[in-house]
Model the fold of this input.
Amino acid sequence: MNAGAIVIVGAGQAGGWAAATLRDRGYTGRVVLLGEEPHAPYERPPLSKAVLGGHAPPESTELFSAPRLAQLQIEFAPGVSATRLRPEERRVDTSDGGVLDYERLILCMGGTPLVPALPGVGNPGVHVLRTRDDAMRLRASLGPGKRVLIVGGGWIGLEVAATARQAGCAVTVVEQAPRLCARSVQPGVSAHLAALHAAHGVDIRLQAALRAVQALPDGRTAAVLSDGVRIDVDAVVLGVGLQANDALAREAGIACERGVLVDAYCRTSAPDVYAAGDVAVTAHAAAGGRIRLESWQNAQDQGTAAARSALGDATPYVPTGAVWSEQYDAMVQIIGFPAMAMCEVLRPQADGRALLSMALDAGGRLVAAVAVDAPRELRQLRKWIAEGAVLDPALLRRPDAPLANAQIR
Ligand SMILES: Cc1cc2nc3c(=O)[nH]c(=O)nc-3n(C[C@H](O)[C@H](O)[C@H](O)COP(=O)(O)OP(=O)(O)OC[C@H]3O[C@@H](n4cnc5c(N)ncnc54)[C@H](O)[C@@H]3O)c2cc1C
Done:
C-alpha cells in the first residue's frame, strides 16, 4: 500500500513509534501525527523517577523531536486533537477546524488518570501524574520538610512515594486493597514492596482510602481519610488508575470495552482502523481473554505492530506483559500474565533486597514472574514463560538447587 494518507491520533509513545515505523518500512505516502499535547512524542517512565526527582530535565524524555519528525516527512501537529472520527467516510475532524481524509487510521490516544468523585478533589493541591506538565507541577511541591499523601499503592503511587522520600518529603500512602499492587502481582511481591517502602520511612496504610480534601488558608491541603483521620499535606497525588481515551472511538461506533478492542493484528472493528498502546484492549488467551496493558514496552511494540499491519504485514502481535518499575535503587521487573496463576512460589535470594516470585498455573506452568534486582534469573524465567515450561515448585524454593534444574518439561 503506498497511496493516500495514514493518520495517527495521539503523539505519545505508541503514536510516535507507529509514525516512525511507517517510514522505516518504506511507506512514502502522507503521514499525519495528531498530538493533543504541545510536545513532540516523549516517554513517560522518567516522569515519576528522574524528572520528578529533579535529576533530569523534562526535555530529556523526548522520543522523536519535531525536527526528526520533519526530516521523516511526518506531518506532526502538536496541540491539535482529533475531535471526531468518521470511519464510514474515512475522515477525521480536528480541533483546528480541519478535516483529514485517511486511507488507514491508527488510534494511539493513551489514557487519562482516574479522578475519584470526592469533595474538594479539584483543589490545586491535588495532583495526577501523566504528562510532562503534570510532573513539573508536582515537582514544585516536593522538597525537604514537605508532606505528601499518595492515594493508591500501585506502580505510579509507589514510584512517586520513592521519589518524594528521596526528595526529603514525609510520605503517606493509602491503599484501599489489603496489599500493594494487588492487581498485577502476587502477595509475596506486595509484602516485599511494603517492606521496601517501610524501610525508607514511608507510612503505608492499607485498607484505607481518601474521603475528602479541603484547601487550607496556608496553601496546604487537608486530606480526610476513611478512618476519619485528617492529615495536612503539601500535595495529594492520585494514583488510582487510568481510563482509556476511547470516547472518540466509541462515539464512532468502533467496538470498545474499557478501551478500543483490537485483534492480534491491532485491527479494530472498523475497516482500516488500528489501535495500539494504553488505549488498546488486546485479544490474548494467556491474559484471560483480553488485556489492556499500561506498559512502555507494549506501547513501543504495539505501535510498531499497528504500523506494520497498516502496511499489510500479517505478523500477529503477541504482548509479553513486560513492565518494569524503579523504586529507590530497586529494579522491579515483571513478565507474563498472572490471570491464570494458581500459586506463587518464592525463591529465597542471598541478598535480602532481591526477590524472585514465580506464578504457576494449575498445571505447574510458569505464567508470570517478578524479579527485584535479579535480572539474570529473570532471563531464564522469561524463556520458560515463552516455552510454557512446567516447573517443580519444591526445587524452585530451594536456593541450593540450580534454577535451571527446576524444569520438569
Ligand atoms: C509517570 C509514569 C511512569 C511510568 N513508568 C513506567 C515504567 O516504569 N515502566 C513501564 O513499563 N511503563 C511505565 N509507564 C507507562 C507507559 O509510559 C505508558 O504505557 C505509555 O506511555 C503508553 O503510551 P501510549 O502512546 O499508549 O499513550 P501516551 O503516551 O499516553 O500517549 C497518548 C497521547 O495521545 C494524546 N491524545 C489523546 N487523545 C487525543 C486526541 N483526540 N487527539 C490527539 N491526541 C490525543 C494524549 O494527549 C497523549 O499525548 C509510566 C507511565 C507514567 C504516566
In short: The chain is about 20% helix and 30% strand.
